[in-house]
Design goal:
- The chain has twelve helices and twelve strands.
- With about 375 residues, the chain is an alpha/beta fold.
- This is GTP-binding protein.
Length: about 375
């Protein structure tokens, strides 16, 4: 599976420009609010260099990458949760996404208007976050109104009401639900609500090389220093379109905030995978080498269902080789087997990032 990332922010902060450069599309990016009305959708391949290396040893005829869907969502404004600026339809678009890229303008440019007439990244962040929070609050309060006509003595209804009241208390205190400790059963119950503040969020700071931009970035980093928040400052105009380069998922990258130009589009995908707790496993052979995206902690049986439902129904076992072992032995299957590096795993095995898998099944 790929994942859906919604790019949100105020009007004129660079969302469509980022979208165009990441997807190689040319959607309008004009200097006026609400240039984007319907969300633009771009599907880009994740060019994982491990695929090329695996394929080179097996002489695969085809390489198939996994994909990411990016949604360029129209600019939100204060009052979006009550319909301002076509806000209700824009918020609905965010609900369809797995993660939110919150884009923030951190540069001065007199030729690019700002909807609130001056550049203040902290204020802009607070406006967007408040609208997402108010939207969730409205959803939760509507649920409580609906439950008034249901038998509140039923145990599952009582649990649901208690959980929603807990969410409302946090939302009224200005706490997004992603920062609240919730159990697996809580998350399962809240899935259908598609609450916006429960979605993982990454901040993209649209910066430039000037000193005032660096001051703005530093302030945002300071604002979130005590929170577990992903923040990527980058200079959009300096970046190469993302689908022209390979992404090295094995690289342990440290971000040099003194040189923002070192941070690029590939880091958005790398951090996006961490944010959504995704891993990649591979199927490989002479016909094709292919990448598959999976949630961390998923079993090998669950992974087989991504390839075909019959694989999951008739799963017997799987042959698994780690990417590192495969490369160390230069793809020589005989040597890999002799060294005991090909493992036979049952249905409860938890797939690891970089596993190369051959599924055995019977339908």
């Amino acid at each position: 599976m790929g994942f859906k990332c919604g790019i949100v922010g105020l009007p004129n902060v660079g969302k469509s420009t980022l979208f165009n450069m990441m997807t190689n599309l040319q959607v309008p990016a004009e200097n006026f609010p609400f240039c984007t009305i319907k969300p633009n959708i771009g599907i880009i391949p994740v060019i994982d260099q491990r695929l090329k290396e695996i394929s080179s040893f097996l002489l695969s005829k085809k390489i198939i990458y996994t994909n990411i869907n990016f949604f360029d969502i129209a600019g939100l404004v204060k009052g979006a949760s009550t319909g301002s600026g076509l806000g209700n339809s824009f918020l609905e678009n965010i609900k369809q996404c797995n993660a939110i890229l919150h884009m923030v303008r951190c540069f001065n440019n007199d030729n690019i208007t700002h909807i609130y007439h001056n550049i203040d990244p902290e204020r802009d962040i607070d406006i967007i976050n408040m609208e997402l929070l108010l939207s969730d609050l409205s959803v939760c309060e509507k649920y409580l109104i609906k439950t008034r006509i249901i038998n509140r003595k039923l145990e599952n209804v009582k649990k649901g009401i208690n959980l929603i009241n807990f969410c409302i208390c946090n939302l009224k205190a200005g706490i997004p639900l992603r920062e609240v400790i919730l159990s697996k059963s809580d998350h399962f119950f809240l899935e259908d609500f598609k609450l916006l503040t429960l979605k993982p969020m990454m901040y993209i700071l649209n910066a430039d090389i000037h000193k005032d931009s660096k001051v703005m970035v530093t302030k945002i980093l300071s604002k979130f220093k005590d929170k577990n928040v992903t923040i990527l400052p980058l200079i959009i105009k300096n970046n190469i379109p993302i689908n022209s380069q390979s992404i090295n998922f094995l690289q342990k990258k440290t971000y040099d905030l003194d040189n923002i130009s070192n941070i690029n589009f590939y880091d958005i995908i790398r951090e996006g995978y961490k944010l959504l707790k995704l891993i990649t496993f591979f199927t490989a052979g002479p016909k094709e080498t292919r990448a598959w995206t999976l949630k961390q902690g998923a079993t090998i049986k669950k992974a087989s269902g991504l390839i075909h439902t019959d694989f999951e129904k008739g799963f017997i076992r799987a042959q698994v080789i780690s990417y590192h072992d495969f490369i160390d032995f230069k793809g020589n299957m005989r040597h890999i087997k002799l060294a005991g590096k090909m493992r036979i795993e049952g249905k409860k095995y938890i797939v690891q990032d970089g596993d190369i898998v051959n599924f055995l099944f019977n339908v």
